[in-house]
Amino acid sequence: MASEKIGIYPGTFDPITNGHSDIIGRAARLLDKLVVGVAINPGKGPIFTIDERVELVREEINYLKNGLADRIEVRPFTGLLIDFAHEVDATVLIRGLRAVSDFDYEFQMASMNAKMAPDVETVCLMASDKYHFIASSLVKEIAKLGGDVTQFVSPRISERLAERLYG
């Protein structure tokens, strides 16, 4: 279908948080197809391998209660996001904004991406009030220090984090 509106929501998803799941569900309502691009980024020192992160994101999508899971695909990617967008025929990049501090970075990225690929538009979704403070890096830090992360991630992800960190 030539007029199918395909979007990408990229991230490292290490781990996928309730905020990520919220953005995925909301973005899927706006598009015919959403590709969740799980970035291969060893520089961030991920807790989970790329295959594990792809699996975890797929599992979380199956629990979305919006009935749109069949319109969401999860794929790993490396390299430029714009190249990946062209590879999957996406014309929309979905980005989540949690705080004002995210805006500067996202504005720069959107501008650079627009210069490299004017056919791909960046759409920013504001994080829902109950999730705007959640960051994967903070979730990992809390989990590593033995804290309770159950209010930030699903029970499935909390369990997987505990298994990974504490056996």
Based on the model shown, name its key terms.
167 residues; alpha/beta; Rossmann fold; 6 helices; 43% helix; globular
Summarize this structure briefly.
The chain has helices spanning 18-30, 50-62, 81-87, 100-116, 136-144, 155-166, and strands spanning 6-11, 33-39, 72-77, 92-97, 121-126. With 167 residues, it is of the alpha/beta class.
What's the helix and strand layout?
Blueprint: E1 6-11, H1 18-30, E2 33-39, H2 50-62, E3 72-77, H3 81-87, E4 92-97, H4 100-116, E5 121-126, H5 136-144, H6 155-166
Parallel strand pairs: 1-2, 1-4, 2-3, 4-5
CATH fold-level name? Rossmann fold
Strand order of the largest sheet: 3-2-1-4-5
Secondary-structure element order, as H and E? EHEHEHEHEHH
Instruction: Spell out the CATH superfamily.
Output: HUPs
- In the CATH scheme, the class would be Alpha Beta
Number of E-state strands: 5
N-to-C terminal Cα separation, in Å?
47 Å
What is the subunit organization of this protein?
single chain
| Helix share, percent | 40-55%
The chain-level mean pLDDT equals 93
**Shape descriptor:** globular
Count of runs of 4 or more consecutive helical residues: 6
